[in-house]
Design goal:
heterodimer, A: mainly alpha, flat, disordered C terminus, B: mainly alpha, 8 helices, 77% helix, 0% strand
């Protein structure tokens, strides 16, 4: 069971990485693109790039916003 | 499409992975036992060859649009992971990957571990260290070679890029006999992240049914646009960090 768990954890880490939101946004972007193309007949080539820009920006913001706070807090307290 | 971008992307990606694998192999070989290290490396290469032989033909059997959708999604996710790390490292939010200190850490751990013979291997620690290092870094290489190669219907060109990178790093490693600390790994990761994300978006959207304006020529816009986006995020994070680190205006100083 433990081996299965670590096998799954390895592949999760390999494919999804540190932030699963990025993967979720890419998949959501592709799904929406497919819906727009096949259902609404819109050639939505511009949609996935928007999702990619948002995914990276959001992920970077989340990764860094908590880290910059302590410095500021520290300076204010000194 | 020209095979050159394919070969170059795979080559740069594989150099990064091969440099990391070399650090581990050198730590195992120089501090423990070369024979066991080479055995571990050899078994890992056999496993990688089996994985490639099993997945490669299966990928080429998929219909092109399904292949592009799945592989595009995977490449975009993978590329964004690389870009995220590269941007965080370029802005100081994450420590730069330092091959020299990684090597010293591996050497310290290798020296502390007891020597144990197992399953016909003289030094089990050196074997497993080398096996894991080569397998883990190699899997990323296999992933990139297969996804790029299958999509371009040119696995051979991708394999040439990968093989050239591995041979170059191995020869340099043999000549230097030290981890390749001077390789600008982060900028190479940045470049590969840009390529993987760009090709991932391009193929993924095509797989979803999109027709890109200009067809393949759209990549000439997508690649620089993704590079600019990532550079923009580096600039944004650096300026945000500088603002946070700069002395606070008088009105903001809570106490002195």
């Amino acid at each position: 069971m433990n081996r299965l768990k670590s096998f799954g954890a390895f592949w999760y880490d390999f494919v999804i990485g540190d932030d699963w939101h990025v993967a979720a946004l890419v998949v959501a972007g592709l799904a929406l693109t497919a819906i727009l193309v096949h259902v609404a007949h819109v050639n939505a080539w511009w949609l996935l790039p928007l999702f990619v820009v948002a995914a990276l920006g959001w992920s970077l913001h989340k990764a860094t916003s908590g880290k910059s706070l302590p410095n500021r807090q520290l300076r204010r307290n000194n | 499409m020209n095979a050159l971008p394919l070969i170059l992307t795979v080559f740069v990606a594989c150099v990064v992975e091969a440099v990391e694998a070399l650090t581990i192999v050198l730590a195992a070989g120089l501090t423990r036992d070369w024979r066991s290290t080479f055995q571990g490396m050899g078994v890992a290469l056999v496993v990688l060859a089996v994985v490639t032989a099993a997945i490669g033909p299966a990928l080429t059997l998929l219909p092109l649009s399904a292949l592009r959708l799945v592989v595009g999604a995977l490449l975009a996710i993978f590329g964004l992971q690389w870009l995220r790390k590269a941007v965080l490292r370029a802005t100081g939010y994450k420590a730069l990957h330092d091959e020299a200190s990684a090597y010293l850490r591996e050497v310290a751990a290798a020296k502390a571990a007891p020597v144990e013979a197992k399953r016909g291997v003289r030094d089990w620690y050196a074997f497993t260290l080398s096996f894991k290092g080569v397998l883990l870094e190699g899997l990323e290489v296999v992933f990139i070679v297969l996804t790029f190669g299958a999509n371009q219907k040119n696995v051979g060109a991708a394999a040439i890029g990968a093989a050239a990178a591995v041979v170059l790093v191995a020869l340099t490693g043999i000549a230097v006999k030290a981890p390749l600390a001077k390789v600008p790994e982060n900028w190479m990761k940045f470049a590969v992240g840009v390529m993987l994300t760009s090709f991932g978006m391009f193929w993924g959207a095509e797989g979803a049914g999109v027709s890109w304006p200009g067809n393949d020529a759209a990549l000439l816009v997508i690649v620089p646009a993704v590079a600019l986006m990532a550079a923009g995020y580096v600039f944004w994070l650096r300026s945000r960090k500088a603002t946070v680190s700069a002395p606070a205006p008088e009105s903001e100083v809570v106490s002195s």
